[in-house]
Task: inverse folding
């Protein structure tokens, strides 16, 4: 364990330095995500104003606002570019350079990406949670913040990230067959966005459909952590959804190992 | 040290018909074809040897190197290095080898060079003391000091290549694979790199496999040559053997003040040679005669030339490895 840490810690470090190198790109990335979040806020605000009652599918306007901002925060926290990164390395052949090092292929990606993310998240999580709670307190009239929910939420986000990362690695291995991943990646992002509740809350869907989606791994990515933060899941239900997250994380971890063994045999390094 | 037996690699290749129409066709109904990149190659390399691995572009050199380094899985055949199979236990195998691909870099693009070495130190579990000694040594042989604090993306090609070679040597590998380590470099950097390779090979008995298109690399470094063409092994032996086997052609150069040396000298009739065995070329007063030293002895041709025309300056050039290889690449070997 200690050895593994010594080997992979430099990747976290390298990831952070990479992010820090392109500062302007990083600032634009954060600004861009925040803007997207506000667009989504105004759309839902308009939807609520045109609606009849106080609530919509069980969501009040303050809850909807919290949902939108939390979904945004969760998406950036659990987001993973691994599929794209694997795909690019396969396309330009630089995967060869990773293979000549005595390290696990998946683990180097994981730690490098963690390094990339750590820096971004540090600057996003605290101000966003604080802002969110202030707005919520004003809208509802009393303080709703729960430290316990926040802590469980963060744990749930870590699990969600692991699911997302290993799912993306598995997906990235498609590049070994189709060589260029751009189109497939676009399609995947769209479908995952819908299935994970990032576009509309899963409880807005027809009941059977919603129930099916809840079991699929994608609900574990966004919807579950957000519901935990909002305090919707309690007691046994909470444990069930956390357990489901652990299950999917292990599932995709195992699958990625299996697919790696299969796909590395198919590798044909492109370009010299 | 290194045993390669009947190594073979096939690729599936999609064939696209030309033009936009062809693109559409291959979008819906791609045609594939099997391409044999490496076809039944065998050789052995003993410990401490520098093996020059040569062949024309597309001969399959890089594919062989990629199989030896565990990147590609052979379609059939076996390679054993240090008693290990590269594809079976990749992580423990690559710990003992160093690899440089001249056309790619293993350095972190956005990190200062020093940090890359720090990362490699942890990955290869090099302890602090040997790391410091090693860095001092590499610094001296490859002269890294002036750019070790710059991010890799700002290095020139020559600096990057030296840095890459240093990175491949940091953990004192037993085997070093160099795939075109001198590609695109100037004369001074080439010299520098050759010296470093030679030094490491001598001091540490590192086995080196080197592919290159610069035959000076081969002449200066390689103990032995393996030449492949179209995926097949066509020559295996020392530089001297290559010369005796294919290098019978010598070149006689002289300067004369006689006005028409060609008509005075008739090598073909005098020695009754075939037209392939001798050719004469004149530029002003200097004459170049290429001849097959097996068909006619050097001393005979010299004596005849000196007796027939007045010669000011005369020299016989030894078989030139570049000339031999040019001929071999062009015609292939039968």
Result:
């Amino acid at each position: 364990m200690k050895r593994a840490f010594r080997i992979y810690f430099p990747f976290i470090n390298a990831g952070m330095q990479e992010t820090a190198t392109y500062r302007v790109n990083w600032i634009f990335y954060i600004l861009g995500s925040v803007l997207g979040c506000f667009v989504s806020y105004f759309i839902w605000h308009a939807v609520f104003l045109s609606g009849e009652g106080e609530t919509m599918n069980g969501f009040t306007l303050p809850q909807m606002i919290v949902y939108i901002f939390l979904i945004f925060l969760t998406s950036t926290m659990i987001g993973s570019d691994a599929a794209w990164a694997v795909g690019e390395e396969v396309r330009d052949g630089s995967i060869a350079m990773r293979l000549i090092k005595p390290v696990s292929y998946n683990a180097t990606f994981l730690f490098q990406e963690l390094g990339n993310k750590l820096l971004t998240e540090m600057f996003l999580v605290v101000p966003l949670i604080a802002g969110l709670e202030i707005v919520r307190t004003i809208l509802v009239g009393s303080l709703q913040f729960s430290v316990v929910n926040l802590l469980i939420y963060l744990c749930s986000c870590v699990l969600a990230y692991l699911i997302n990362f290993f799912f993306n690695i598995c997906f990235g291995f498609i590049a070994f067959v189709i060589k260029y991943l751009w189109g497939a990646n676009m399609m995947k992002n769209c479908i995952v966005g819908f299935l994970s509740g990032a576009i509309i809350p899963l409880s807005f869907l027809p009941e059977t459909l919603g129930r099916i989606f809840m079991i699929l791994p994608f609900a574990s990515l966004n919807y579950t952590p957000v519901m935990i933060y909002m305090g919707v899941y309690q007691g046994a239900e909470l444990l069930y959804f956390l357990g489901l997250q652990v299950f999917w994380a292990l599932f995709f971890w195992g699958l990625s190992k299996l697919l790696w063994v299969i796909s590395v045999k198919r590798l044909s390094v492109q370009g010299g | 040290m290194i045993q390669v037996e009947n190594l073979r690699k096939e690729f599936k290749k999609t064939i696209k018909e030309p033009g936009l129409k062809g693109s559409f066709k291959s979008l819906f109904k791609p045609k594939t074809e099997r391409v044999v990149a490496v076809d039944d190659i065998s050789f052995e390399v003993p410990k401490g040897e520098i093996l020059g691995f040569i062949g024309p572009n597309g001969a399959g050199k890089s594919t062989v190197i990629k199989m030896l380094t565990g990147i590609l899985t052979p379609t059939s055949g076996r390679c054993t290095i240090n008693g290990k199979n590269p594809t079976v236990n990749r992580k423990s195998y690559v710990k003992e080898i160093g690899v440089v691909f001249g056309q790619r870099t293993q350095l972190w693009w956005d990190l200062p060079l020093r940090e890359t070495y720090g990362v490699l130190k942890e990955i290869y579990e090099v302890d602090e003391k040997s790391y410091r000694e090693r860095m001092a040594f590499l610094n001296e042989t490859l002269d890294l000091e002036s750019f070790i604090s710059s991010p890799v993306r700002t290095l020139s090609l020559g600096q990057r290549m030296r840095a890459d070679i240093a990175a491949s040597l940091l953990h004192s590998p037993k085997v070093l694979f160099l795939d075109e380590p001198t590609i695109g470099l100037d004369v001074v950097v080439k010299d520098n790199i050759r010296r470093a390779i030679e030094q490491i090979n001598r001091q540490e008995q590192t086995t080196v496999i080197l592919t290159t298109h610069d035959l000076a690399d081969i002449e200066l470094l390689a103990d032995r040559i393996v030449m492949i063409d179209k995926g097949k092994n066509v020559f295996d032996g020392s530089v001297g053997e290559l010369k005796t086997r294919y290098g019978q052609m010598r070149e006689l150069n002289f300067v004369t003040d006689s006005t028409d040396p060609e008509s005075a000298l008739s090598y073909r009739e005098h020695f009754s040679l075939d037209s392939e065995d001798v050719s004469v070329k004149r530029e002003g007063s200097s004459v170049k005669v290429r001849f097959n030293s097996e068909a006619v002895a050097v001393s005979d041709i010299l004596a005849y030339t000196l007796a027939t025309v007045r010669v000011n300056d005369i020299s016989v050039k030894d078989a030139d490895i570049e000339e031999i290889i040019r001929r071999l690449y062009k015609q292939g070997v039968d």
Remarks:
- Chain B touches chain A at residues 11, 62, 66, 69-73, 90-92, 94-95, 97, 99, 101, 103-106, 108, 110-111, 115, 118-119, 122-125, 151 (CB under 8 Å).
- Chain B has two domains: 2-8+40-243, 248-318.
- The mean pLDDT of chain B is 86.
